[in-house]
UniProtKB/TrEMBL annotation:
TM regions (residue ranges): 60-77
Protein name: Early nodulin-93
Organism the protein comes from: Aegilops tauschii subsp. strangulata (Goatgrass)
A family per Pfam: ENOD93
Alphabetically ordered keywords of this record: Membrane, Transmembrane, Transmembrane helix
InterPro entries the record matches: Enod93
Amino acid sequence: MSTVTRAHLDQRLAAAKRSSKEAAMAGAKAAAVATVAAAVPTLASVRMLPWAKAHLNPTGQALIISTVAGMAYFIVADKTILSMARKHSYETAPEHLKNTSFH
């Protein structure tokens, strides 16, 4: 069993902080795009469709748009963190586990 050094733990902590910051930025970008993508048809439908005009008050419109933005943020941030964790776990894996060929 190997010992874990302080430097190794500091290195892992720094990598985790970089990963979380990158995931937060990717999630924010996705949320911004999703907000525009949801707002345009929502606001247009309220102006053009009689059903939407009658049933979607401003609170309902805001709820639709913010729900889409929140989902986009968390989905993209989660996928980013998982992909980075997968990449880092592969980089630190022993050589006998990196060989994925079936020969």
